[in-house]
Amino acid sequence: MTKLTPEQAAAKVMVALDKPDRSAALQLAEQLQGTGCWAKVGMELFYAAGQDIVRELKARGFRVFLDLKMHDIPNTVRGGARSIAKLGVDMFNVHAAGGAAMMRAAVQGVQDALDAGETATKPLIIGVTQLTSTNLTTLNEEIGIPGTVEEAVLRYARLTKEAGLDGVVASPLEVGAIKAACGASFLTVTPGIRPKGADVGDQQRITTPSDAVKGGTDYLVIGRPITGAADPAAALQTILKEMSSSYDDR
Ligand SMILES: O=C(O)c1cc(=O)[nH]c(=O)n1[C@@H]1O[C@H](COP(=O)(O)O)[C@@H](O)[C@H]1O
């Protein structure tokens, strides 16, 4: 059992910069700069601010997770992945529900960019399993997938691994089962993080930062508990303190 240093804790945190424009995102990034945490750029920010925001965050020293959750036919995802790879992001994701051929196409798209000399950075590619905003009712009664949420997550995780991706997005509650099924080095990226007493919002499958660390997750994706705080830098520090006083069980 090893205790995380504050630096190790920060390197596991991906702050979701879910902001409506460039200046709001950069204002937030300024408060987080130098901590060692990642910046996650999702649909809200990317659709508003475009590729430049990724370059600006990279220039400020952030590792960037581009969260656009591609889900399309393989040929389109291959081209999309090539375009994303050119941007020099450190990680991006696709929906595992797009199937194995689609996920292999994402890997191929990155290879296309590397082969063409369009980038020197090989980003990690992550498959989104079952969104953390969903529960058993959503799965069984709305989407029509039978079985438990964990079974669905594991099915997606195995498929993602077979397709050659680096890991999955899932809830921190499912990390132990994913690692047992896919191996310790298969990455888990886990949103659904809520410090005790924080507003749950639209998330369904959640844990605290310390329980996520104890469960052995690789990365904690955290948005509103940090970005919605009156003092985001202080909120991050409180979370890092909680994480580093927990134990990493792996
Ligand atoms: O891929 C993701 O990042 C993601 C997958 C998922 O299943 N659930 C999920 O919440 N996310 C993202 O993680 C972030 C969570 O933000 P908060 O709920 O504000 O902490 C958001 O930017 C979501 O888009």
UniProtKB/TrEMBL annotation:
<dbReference type="GO" id="GO:0044205">
    <property type="term" value="P:'de novo' UMP biosynthetic process"/>
</dbReference>
<comment type="subunit">
    <text>Homodimer.</text>
</comment>
<dbReference type="InterPro" id="IPR013785">
    <property type="entry name" value="Aldolase_TIM"/>
</dbReference>
<dbReference type="InterPro" id="IPR001754">
    <property type="entry name" value="OMPdeCOase_dom"/>
</dbReference>
<dbReference type="GO" id="GO:0006207">
    <property type="term" value="P:'de novo' pyrimidine nucleobase biosynthetic process"/>
</dbReference>
<dbReference type="InterPro" id="IPR011060">
    <property type="entry name" value="RibuloseP-bd_barrel"/>
</dbReference>
<feature type="active site" description="Proton donor">
    <location>
        <position position="69"/>
    </location>
</feature>
<feature type="binding site">
    <location>
        <position position="132"/>
    </location>
    <ligand>
        <name>substrate</name>
    </ligand>
</feature>
<feature type="binding site">
    <location>
        <position position="40"/>
    </location>
    <ligand>
        <name>substrate</name>
    </ligand>
</feature>
<feature type="binding site">
    <location>
        <position position="224"/>
    </location>
    <ligand>
        <name>substrate</name>
    </ligand>
</feature>
<dbReference type="InterPro" id="IPR047596">
    <property type="entry name" value="OMPdecase_bac"/>
</dbReference>
<keyword id="KW-0210">Decarboxylase</keyword>
<comment type="pathway">
    <text>Pyrimidine metabolism; UMP biosynthesis via de novo pathway; UMP from orotate: step 2/2.</text>
</comment>
<dbReference type="GO" id="GO:0005829">
    <property type="term" value="C:cytosol"/>
</dbReference>
<feature type="binding site">
    <location>
        <begin position="67"/>
        <end position="76"/>
    </location>
    <ligand>
        <name>substrate</name>
    </ligand>
</feature>
<dbReference type="InterPro" id="IPR014732">
    <property type="entry name" value="OMPdecase"/>
</dbReference>
<feature type="active site" description="For OMPdecase activity">
    <location>
        <position position="72"/>
    </location>
</feature>
<feature type="binding site">
    <location>
        <position position="203"/>
    </location>
    <ligand>
        <name>substrate</name>
    </ligand>
</feature>
<feature type="binding site">
    <location>
        <position position="223"/>
    </location>
    <ligand>
        <name>substrate</name>
    </ligand>
</feature>
<comment type="function">
    <text>Catalyzes the decarboxylation of orotidine 5'-monophosphate (OMP) to uridine 5'-monophosphate (UMP).</text>
</comment>
<comment type="similarity">
    <text>Belongs to the OMP decarboxylase family. Type 1 subfamily.</text>
</comment>
<protein>
    <recommendedName>
        <fullName>Orotidine 5'-phosphate decarboxylase</fullName>
        <ecNumber>4.1.1.23</ecNumber>
    </recommendedName>
</protein>
<feature type="active site" description="For OMPdecase activity">
    <location>
        <position position="69"/>
    </location>
</feature>
<keyword id="KW-0456">Lyase</keyword>
<feature type="binding site">
    <location>
        <position position="194"/>
    </location>
    <ligand>
        <name>substrate</name>
    </ligand>
</feature>
<feature type="active site" description="For OMPdecase activity">
    <location>
        <position position="67"/>
    </location>
</feature>
<dbReference type="InterPro" id="IPR018089">
    <property type="entry name" value="OMPdecase_AS"/>
</dbReference>
<dbReference type="Pfam" id="PF00215">
    <property type="entry name" value="OMPdecase"/>
</dbReference>
<feature type="domain" description="Orotidine 5'-phosphate decarboxylase">
    <location>
        <begin position="12"/>
        <end position="239"/>
    </location>
</feature>
<dbReference type="GO" id="GO:0004590">
    <property type="term" value="F:orotidine-5'-phosphate decarboxylase activity"/>
</dbReference>
<keyword id="KW-0665">Pyrimidine biosynthesis</keyword>
<feature type="binding site">
    <location>
        <position position="18"/>
    </location>
    <ligand>
        <name>substrate</name>
    </ligand>
</feature>
